[in-house]
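Design request, tokens follow.
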């Protein structure tokens, strides 16, 4: 069997959720959109079911998959509904929905729900992506309040640069949000992962941690005590010696500058390992630091085993996890941990959960 696999540590997931909740105070929606950032939304939600105050997903389809798996906790649709026909399922499954633009208010006003909706009204406090302008928030709130179809309105906003502690824009966004909502009642939710960890002023009634749940710290320098949830690993499937000057792999990107012992690893960009990873990207072989050499191909990649003479066929290769930080791989590859984690596919997923006695 091809040895490429993603080990998912559900104990680490629970540890990270508890850390987020205690750092923030109040309640926390565990963000499990995009298949829990590539970790498996159903398994992750089930692992958190006993303690999470609720979950957040991008869209109705993601929420229905959780309900079908028996998740009964509140589930928030972060983009709300895309068309009025989705409101029936929102009502039937008791889902919560973000309202971020006027068309969604019209859909709610025209619906005939048998029980009122729970809405999170989104304020554009400066990211300029989704949400009502500060000057339009009170009117939007009023329309939702008087239409008789909404029972509860939480006020929310989202930060553009909360992972940059030295940048003032998060403080500006908080101030704009507070000013826009000063005269409105209801719970508040501001903090994504970076704000949970780095912006106490953003701590209100509800946190919305995503990436931190999976153990990839959005501000790695701060050493916040997160535990990596995913270990992406495989094995050495062949070994070869390169003489000085010989090329390796597609495009001959790498040439041996010394006699080089190359390990061929069963992992490629079709598994989600980034093709953009340059020579020198860290890997770990049998627990020892090593480096990627040569261009990543669809099903395979190559690592330098010259300084690891004991490494051989079957040696374990970690691409990221406890030994190799996914943040560092992402940085080398010119992207972020979010994208690497979301992209993992084809590999076997194996779940570890010490709380599960089945
Ligand atoms: C994805 C998302 C989050 C979680 O963000 P992280 O940076 O992963 O913590 C929170 N809020 C909203 C609105 C989101 O879309």
């Amino acid at each position: 069997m091809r040895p490429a696999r993603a080990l998912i540590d559900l104990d680490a997931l629970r540890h990270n959720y508890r850390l987020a909740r205690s750092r923030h105070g109040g309640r926390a929606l565990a963000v499990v959109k995009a298949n829990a950032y590539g970790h498996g939304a159903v398994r992750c939600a089930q692992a958190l079911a006993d303690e999470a105050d609720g979950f957040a997903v991008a869209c109705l389809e993601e929420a229905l998959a959780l309900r079908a798996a028996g998740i009964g906790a509140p589930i928030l649709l972060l983009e709300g509904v895309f068309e009025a026909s989705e409101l029936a399922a929102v009502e039937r499954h008791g889902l919560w929905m973000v309202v971020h633009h006027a068309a969604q208010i019209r859909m709610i006003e025209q619906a005939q729900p048998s029980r009122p909706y729970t809405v999170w009204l989104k304020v554009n406090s400066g990211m300029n992506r989704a949400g009502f302008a500060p000057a339009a928030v009170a009117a939007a709130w009023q329309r939702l309040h008087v239409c008789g179809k909404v029972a509860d309105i939480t006020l929310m906003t989202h930060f553009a640069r909360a992972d940059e502690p030295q940048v003032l824009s998060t403080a500006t966004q908080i101030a704009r949000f507070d000013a826009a909502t000063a005269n409105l009642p209801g719970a508040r939710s501001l903090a994504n992962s970076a704000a949970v960890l780095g912006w106490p002023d953003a701590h209100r009634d509800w946190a919305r941690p995503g990436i931190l749940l999976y153990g990839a710290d959005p501000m790695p320098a701060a050493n916040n005590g997160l535990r990596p949830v995913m270990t992406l690993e495989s094995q050495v499937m062949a070994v070869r010696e390169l003489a000085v000057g010989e090329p390796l792999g597609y495009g001959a990107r790498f040439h041996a500058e010394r006699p080089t012992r190359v390990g061929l690893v069963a992992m490629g960009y079709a598994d989600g390992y980034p093709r953009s990873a340059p020579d020198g990207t860290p890997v770990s072989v049998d627990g020892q630091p090593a480096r990627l050499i040569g261009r990543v191909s669809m099903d395979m990649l190559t690592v330098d085993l010259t300084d690891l003479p004991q490494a051989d066929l079957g040696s374990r290769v970690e691409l990221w996890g406890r030994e190799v930080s996914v943040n560092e791989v992402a940085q080398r590859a010119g992207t972020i941990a979010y994208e690497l984690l979301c992209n993992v596919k084809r590999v076997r997923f194996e779940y570890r959960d010490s709380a599960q006695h089945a």
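Comment from the thread starter after seeing the answer: thanks! Residues 101 and 200 are 28 Å apart (CA to CA).
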